[in-house]
Write a structure and sequence with these properties.
Layout lengths: L2 E6 L7 H4 L7 E6 L4 E5 L10 E11 L13 E6 L5 E5 L4 E5 L5 E6 L11 E6 L5 E5 L4 E5 L5 E6 L9 E5 L5 E5 L11 E12 L4 E15 L4 E3 L7 E5 L2 E5 L5 E5 L5 E7 L8 H13 L5 H10 L9 E6 L5 E5 L11 E5 L5 E6 L4 E7 L2 E7 L5 E10 L3
Parallel strand pairs: 3-21
Antiparallel strand pairs: 1-2, 2-3, 4-28, 5-6, 6-7, 7-8, 9-10, 10-11, 11-12, 13-14, 14-15, 15-16, 16-17, 18-19, 19-20, 20-21, 22-23, 23-24, 24-25, 26-27, 27-28
Helix pairs in contact: 2-3
Length: about 400
């Protein structure tokens, strides 16, 4: 494949561009023979003193309100940030959708467990329609519910692909189309069998009820125990996020993400000049101990996997992708140990694909949303108790 070198320039977000005018370029930008733009970053583009950080003290934290059911959580499925700092929480235990203001005060709750109108079995926050309604996707029921700004139910519809195939909705593009996956149904294999998924992603237009297939992403590797399907440690995860009108995906050990336009064409690759992380025997042992401790499968299954099955040679580069509302992409560096309370590290890319630098988020917290200078997610204490936590994102000392 022939590549033409276009430039070596820093492409910085927010106010960093002017601060870097006299610095050496951090990113190499090329276009290959297929017209794909390749941005390879060698060093962080944030100048010293302008790096971003997350304040470890929360703006507010929900979940320690005694007998108040509006702030009691069990198995939180999603936390989303709204304009102005308000928060939407999807609680799996109660199957409710709850809204809180920017100070953490409860505004309303709706839903409940069931299959009737306005009820949920496996709800996830999808986003907001142009009219301001909140869209909640229920994977178990393959349907979407629209909730008004005051918590009133506006309607519920079952959805599938144009050919009747099942779909799963994850996110919204800027034009209102849904980011969806078309799952593949498998028959249960023999006990101890492993296999690798592939995930077909697409844009689904809920008005026209048609879809555009965008990309197929290598998925997780699984092992069948005879009773349950368990993810193989260190196998890649099919990461995806809607970024404006584009789809960003990542999978595998290479520290890169790829970008597809609204028609499905591959248009860009964002790369970091960083080596793959090898998997050691000690890594495998620590992960098995953690998985057994949290009840993620019996010890005998993991011992068999370690002794008889192929261990991936390298860790996945990332294990989560998020968009922050300003066009920046956040990629969380892979962490194998589910019990780790070390602060996760995120690589942040600006809208042009240049690596800005690394941001650490609070230990024990799974970040689910970044918007308007705030970071929100699920915090779990040492006993595993869940809280909704919102923190301030401090950008360049601001």
């Amino acid at each position: 494949m022939v590549r033409s070198r276009l430039a070596l320039v820093p492409a910085l977000a927010l106010g960093a561009a002017t601060a870097c005018a006299d610095r050496e370029p951090e990113a190499a930008i090329e276009v290959d023979s297929a017209g794909v733009r390749i941005v390879e970053s060698r060093a962080p583009a944030w100048p010293p003193g302008t790096e971003w950080s997350v304040n470890p003290e929360p703006v507010f934290r929900l979940g320690d309100a005694g007998d108040d059911p509006s702030s009691s959580f069990f198995r939180i499925l999603d936390v989303a940030l709204l304009a102005g700092g308000e928060v939407i929480v999807v609680d799996g235990g109660s199957a409710e959708v709850r809204r809180y203001d920017a100070a953490g005060r409860h505004l309303w709750s709706t839903g409940g467990r069931g299959e009737g109108p306005g009820e949920f079995r496996s709800p996830r926050y999808l986003g907001r329609r142009e009219d301001g309604a909140f869209l909640i996707w229920d994977r178990a029921l393959s349907r979407v519910s629209a909730i008004g700004q005051n918590g009133d139910r506006l309607g519920t519809e079952r959805r599938s692909g144009p050919d009747g195939s099942p779909l799963v909705a994850f996110d919204l593009f800027d034009d209102g189309a849904w980011l969806v996956a078309f799952p593949v149904v498998r028959q249960a294999p023999e006990r101890g069998t492993t296999w690798t998924d592939s995930v077909r992603l697409g844009r689904y237009d809920p008005v026209l009820e048609d879809d555009v297939r965008l990309a197929t992403v290598p998925g997780q590797r699984w092992v069948w125990t005879g009773q349950s399907m368990l993810p193989v440690p260190f196998s890649p995860r099919p990461l995806r996020v809607a970024l404006g009108d584009r789809l960003v995906v990542g999978s595998g050990p290479d520290p890169q993400v790829v970008v597809h336009d609204a028609g499905g064409s591959l248009v860009a690759r964002y790369r970091l000049a960083r080596a793959r992380e090898p998997v050691s025997e000690a890594d495998v042992g620590r992960v098995i101990e953690s998985l057994v401790e949290i009840g993620q499968g019996p010890e005998a299954v993991w011992r068999q996997w370690r002794d008889e099955m192929e261990v991936p040679a390298h860790e996945p580069a990332f294990d989560r992708l998020l968009a922050d509302g300003d066009g920046n992409l956040w990629a969380r560096r892979f962490t194998a140990d589910p019990l780790s309370r070390e602060p996760p590290s995120w690589d942040v890319f600006d809208p042009a694909g240049t690596w800005l630098g690394v941001v650490a988020t609070p230990g024990g917290m799974t970040v689910t949303a970044i918007r308007d200078g705030l970071v929100a997610g699920v915090y779990r204490d040492e006993l595993g108790v869940e809280y909704v936590s919102v923190h301030r994102l401090e950008m360049g000392g601001r």
